[in-house]
Design brief:
Helix content is 46%, strand content 7%. By secondary structure, it is an alpha+beta fold.
């Protein structure tokens, strides 16, 4: 993501941190391990693309068990611990490649226990952030290597078989340890949803701000704190959800593997990861302390994690990479909606949404670093509003494809999952309009009326904190024009000025035979376009 010049001026001196940037954002804490969650998404998509039940099962294993984030070993010792082990206690060993391992306990254990969990140390370098990465990734992906590219699975830095493990100065061995089976991932995309009850919903000492504002909208709509996991699991299994509210259900038994693939791969990123990004920003607000940076570190770290989960490692340091998460989605949709660039009027490059979010990320970070806790709430709210825009764009894009361009199962499934990621926000504003969108976009919808979906969204833009300029209009690059009926919503004053200008131009066009309209009936044929042009001179307009 990029930042406006005004916001860039707030970026604090680099002497405060020396961590690798994430799409232009400079974190103040180490988050390379968090940033790598997009590699799980990438691996899931790889196996879903095989289009087989076996591939779906592998993708589900990765979804549930992970592979790239929070790597740790679960080792059964040949003899019991002689003393209690606390989380963070020092542990030494030897890796598969013969190098020394110096790390810490992942969790505590009691004297007499034989099973211990050991975390793998992570580095500040995103390309080589961890030396062991296995989890649920298939054995064919385990590649011992000195330096691995992003996405490759690493075993060279895992604990070696038969090597001595030193725990708090005492040596142990293991007769059962296996590299492929005993190295796990503690952070998973599924876990982003299944942990929601304690991390986003229920008020507690660890979550004093719960229920979180945006999450509450989704919980109220679906009636489940694990709605995202239920949706993705239904897509993977080819079954139906059964939300207690009777709202938002998706029956993936109606789809084949192609439709289920879209539900799973988009649901994992745009439902699970989406809400957890917002959770981290809320957590930062919860933990902000107006004292000093040492006591405020947890809040700053949470904010950094929110940016990492939004962006992912594949975007690189400048945001020009090929990502799999929400940053990448915003850049894809801006191409479709002519909302790229700092001014939001281009058809390539960084999206306006990512420019605006980049500003919010920097402003929020600056507020945390200067102990200005009261300033955080508006930034979190604005981030939530902006993140919803690509979901609206996605829903509208596939509604148009299904209604006007003969879209089939894949397009219908894509529209359904984008809708699922934003419909609770609409429902929070207007339940009737949310029902209109759902009935037209749900899995197995009898029909889809693009105009109804578009109008239902637009009636709620103000309530949702967005506008026509942010969402844009569905744009045809070849004709350099908006698809007919898919133009951006104009705000009242702008619309009035535009109508006066169009009236004057139409009168001139009727005389000269010319036309300055930038909206074409693309895909409807030249005869339909001719009809529209005649109509602009007061004859008629019929599609």
């Amino acid at each position: 993501m990029k930042f406006s010049l005004a916001t860039a001026a707030l970026i604090l001196p680099t002497t405060l941190a020396s961590f690798e940037r994430i799409a232009g954002y400079e974190p103040m804490s180490q988050i390379t391990d968090h940033n790598a969650i997009d590699l799980d998404q990438k691996s899931m998509e790889t196996y879903l693309a095989l289009g087989t039940e076996e591939g779906f099962q592998t993708a589900q294993d990765i979804y549930e068990q992970g592979g790239h984030s929070k790597a740790h070993a679960v080792i059964t010792l040949s003899s019991p611990l002689v003393a209690d082990l606390s989380k963070g206690d020092p542990i030494l060993g030897t890796a598969v490649d013969g190098t020394a391992i110096s790390t810490n306990a992942y969790l505590g254990a009691s004297a007499g226990d034989t099973v211990i969990k050991i975390k793998y140390a992570t580095s500040d370098d995103q390309d080589t952030y961890v030396g062991c990465s296995v989890g649920a990734l298939p054995a064919t992906e385990h590649r011992p290597c000195a330096v691995c590219f992003k996405g490759f699975q690493i075993t060279s830095g895992c604990f070696g078989v038969g090597e001595i493990i030193t725990v708090n100065g005492v040596s142990y061995t293991s007769d059962t340890y296996d590299v492929a089976n005993d190295n796990k991932a503690g952070r998973t995309i599924q876990g982003f949803s299944t942990s929601a009850d304690s991390k986003q919903l229920t008020t507690s000492t660890s979550c004093p701000g719960c229920p979180y504002k945006e999450f509450k909208k989704f919980y109220d709509y679906y009636g489940s704190s694990t709605y995202a996991n239920e949706y993705v699991t239904a897509a993977l299994d080819g079954t139906a959800t059964s939300f207690t509210t009777g709202l938002g259900d998706a029956d993936f038994s109606k789809y084949g593997l192609a439709g289920r693939r879209e539900g799973a791969k988009k649901g994992s990123a745009y439902l699970n990861v989406y809400m957890y990004v917002l959770r981290e920003f809320e957590d930062a607000f919860d933990n902000c302390k107006e004292v000093d940076i040492e006591q405020n570190y947890r809040a700053v770290h949470a904010w950094d994690k929110g940016v990492a989960f939004y962006t992912g490692s594949l975007e690189g340091t400048n945001g020009a990479g090929s990502g799999k998460l929400l940053h990448a989605l915003a850049d894809k949709r801006c191409v479709n909606y002519k909302t790229c660039g700092n001014d939001g009027d281009e058809t390539k490059g960084i999206s306006k949404i990512n420019y605006l979010l980049g500003d919010q990320f920097i402003l929020g970070q600056n507020a945390l670093l200067t102990y200005n806790c009261g300033a955080i709430r508006p930034y979190v709210d604005r981030i939530a509003d902006l993140m919803s825009v690509p979901m609206i764009q996605g829903t509208l894009r596939y509604a148009y494809k299904v209604d006007w361009q003969g879209g089939v199962e894949i397009e219908k499934a894509e529209g359904a999952v984008f809708m699922a990621a934003v419909i609770p926000r609409v429902h929070d504003c207007n339940a009737t309009d949310a029902a209109i969108i759902y009935e037209n976009m749900k899995v197995g919808a009898a029909s889809t009326n693009y105009a109804k979906v578009k109008n239902a969204f637009e009636r709620n833009y103000d309530c949702m904190g967005v506008n026509g300029a942010l969402v844009g209009g569905l744009f045809h690059h070849f004709y350099n024009a908006y698809y007919v009926g898919a133009e951006p919503k104009k705000e009242a004053e702008e619309k009035e000025d535009a109508e006066e200008k169009e009236d004057a131009e139409e009168k001139e066009n009727c005389v000269t035979g010319g036309s300055s309209s930038n909206v074409l009936a693309i895909g409807l044929g030249s005869s339909a376009l001719a009809v529209a042009l005649l109509a602009s001179c007061g004859v008629f307009y019929m599609i």
